[in-house]
């Protein structure tokens, strides 16, 4: 396999002998090697370039240069796209008016990402699961658009359900901007984060209370003068990475998702065994994402970034920018619970830039934006179209049926078991096109299932009434909008 994918690797070939020995594609070997190097550099960065020893300027410069080096090693000259996308967006931010800055910047950033995705997919390597250069661009897109919305809201006092401490009141310099987008800790796999949180990390103020209401409270006030160590969090997450990688390498070839469309399998296997195989094949696929996201989180923590406060027992929490909660995913009893624990920072980005701002059908608009952000494979759009109906149906069931099971603990347990089974099947059914990518195999899979879950979800949505969550939230927000506007502006003035 390694020799077959060598030609598609656009980065360094220094590790080609290692790729041949372990029989893994060179681009994946380069990615893991760079992340291990980034982990070592993160420890060095935290100890020797601590905010107490050096200036924010030096920390910005070093973080940016290391990030560009990792990008060049993994992607070669394709990493110039990171600079092009960031430079175009920064130009829009500087030269466009404040009123429409966020809209223009969003269009330019997303447009450049989609153009690169089209080129990569339909010109270079359709259907290849390679560590391609558009992966980091997806994270950079999130960072740029998040920051520009935070700047717009911070300067115009726009009311959205956005936490006040995320609002920006000044434009970043070019160095700060590039450091935020392309630092070595998140250049390859993210995760995205708030610009204010990143700035606080660089300046060494990230251990101060992030919420004003907790400034004198027991949770943060007791420990606000102590800088916690991320050692335990990093070790724990590295252990999770090792376990996830071992599970993935052991099971990914034994339980391929593509086998669900095999004619002999479909014709000769009973339906209940097809359901079991579908669940197990998706269960075997998820550890790959657990490994990538948890390793990225550990790298940021090792550098001192990601501290979010203290537990009630006084132990530090390092989950500010965590992207996954594994138990929350595997034990999810609802579609929403699964989504809330999967790719967490992307879900927050979609919520802040789309769901909370879209006036018409925000659920469908959010799924559409998610599909566009992921890429141009048709399977992505089939997955998110199916996900829209699944979300609406799950919301209707929870609203109408769940109250009847809350009368006792035993009824609640029965409800949780049933909804866990239903959620895992629904998620697996929904995500198949996301893995198969092409229209033909995806429709072949759904046809073999007679589109049963699509039909059930549509019937549920039509039969069970449910109030719009956005409408309920909107009624409450309208009552407090005037007070919130004054409070937000006053808090931002104090912060300035």
From TrEMBL:
Q: Which domain of life is it from?
A: Eukaryota
Q: Name one GO molecular function term.
A: acyltransferase activity
Q: Which UniProt keywords apply?
A: Acyltransferase, Endoplasmic reticulum, Membrane, Transferase, Transmembrane, Transmembrane helix
One GO term describing the cellular component: endoplasmic reticulum membrane
> How does the protein associate with the membrane?
Multi-pass membrane protein
Pfam families to which the protein is assigned, alphabetical: MBOAT
Q: Where in the cell is it found?
A: Endoplasmic reticulum membrane
Q: Where are the transmembrane segments?
A: 29-49, 61-81, 101-123, 379-397, 417-439, 445-466
Bias class Basic and acidic residues marks the residues at 473-484
**Primary location group:** endoplasmic reticulum
BP GO annotations: lipid modification
Q: Where is this region: Disordered?
A: 473-496
Q: What is this protein called?
A: Membrane bound O-acyltransferase domain containing 2a
User: What species was this sequence derived from?
Assistant: Anabas testudineus
């Amino acid at each position: 396999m390694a020799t077959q994918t060598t030609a598609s690797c656009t980065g360094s070939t220094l590790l080609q002998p290692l790729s041949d020995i372990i029989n893994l594609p060179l681009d994946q070997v380069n990615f893991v090697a760079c992340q291990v190097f980034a982990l070592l550099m993160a420890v060095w960065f935290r100890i020797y370039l601590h905010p107490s020893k050096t200036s924010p300027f030096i920390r910005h410069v070093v973080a940016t240069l290391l990030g560009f080096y990792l990008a060049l090693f993994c992607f070669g000259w394709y990493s110039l796209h990171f600079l092009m996308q960031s430079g175009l967006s920064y130009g829009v931010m500087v030269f466009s008016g404040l009123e429409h800055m966020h809209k223009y910047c969003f269009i330019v950033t997303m447009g450049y990402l989609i153009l690169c995705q089209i080129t990569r997919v339909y010109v270079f390597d359709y259907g290849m699961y390679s560590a391609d250069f558009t992966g980091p661009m997806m994270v950079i897109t999130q960072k740029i658009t998040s920051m520009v919305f935070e700047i717009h809201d911070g300067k115009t006092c726009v009311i959205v359900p956005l936490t006040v401490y995320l609002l920006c009141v000044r434009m970043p310099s070019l160095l700060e901007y590039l450091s935020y987008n392309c630092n070595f800790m998140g250049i390859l796999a993210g995760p995205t984060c708030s610009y204010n949180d990143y700035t606080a990390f660089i300046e060494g103020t990230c251990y101060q209370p992030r919420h004003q209401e907790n400034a004198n409270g027991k949770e943060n006030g007791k420990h606000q003068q102590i800088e916690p160590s991320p050692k335990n969090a990093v070790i724990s997450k590295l252990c999770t990475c090792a376990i996830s990688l071992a599970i993935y390498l052991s099971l990914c070839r034994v339980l391929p998702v593509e086998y669900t469309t095999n004619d002999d399998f479909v014709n000769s296997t009973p339906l209940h065994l097809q359901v079991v195989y579908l669940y197990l094949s998706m269960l075997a696929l998820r550890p790959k994402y657990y490994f990538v996201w948890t390793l990225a989180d550990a790298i940021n923590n090792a550098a001192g970034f990601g501290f979010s406060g203290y537990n009630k027992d006084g132990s530090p929490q390092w989950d500010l920018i965590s992207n996954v909660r594994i138990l929350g995913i595997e034990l999810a009893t609802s579609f929403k619970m699964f989504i809330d624990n999967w790719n967490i920072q992307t879900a927050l980005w979609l919520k802040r830039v789309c769901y909370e701002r879209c006036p018409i059908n925000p659920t469908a608009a959010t799924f559409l934006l998610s599909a566009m952000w992921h890429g141009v494979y048709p399977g992505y759009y089939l997955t998110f179209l199916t996900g829209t109906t699944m979300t609406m149906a799950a919301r209707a069931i929870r609203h109408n049926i769940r109250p009847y099971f809350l009368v006792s603990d035993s009824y609640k347990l029965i409800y949780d078991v049933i909804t866990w089974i239903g959620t895992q099947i629904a998620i697996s059914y929904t995500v198949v096109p996301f893995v198969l990518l092409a229209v033909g195999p995806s429709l072949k899979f759904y046809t073999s299932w007679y589109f049963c879950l699509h039909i059930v979800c549509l019937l549920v949505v039509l039969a069970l009434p449910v109030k719009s969550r956005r409408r309920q939230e909107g009624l409450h927000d309208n009552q407090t909008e005037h007070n919130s506007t004054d409070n937000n502006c006053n808090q931002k003035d104090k912060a300035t």
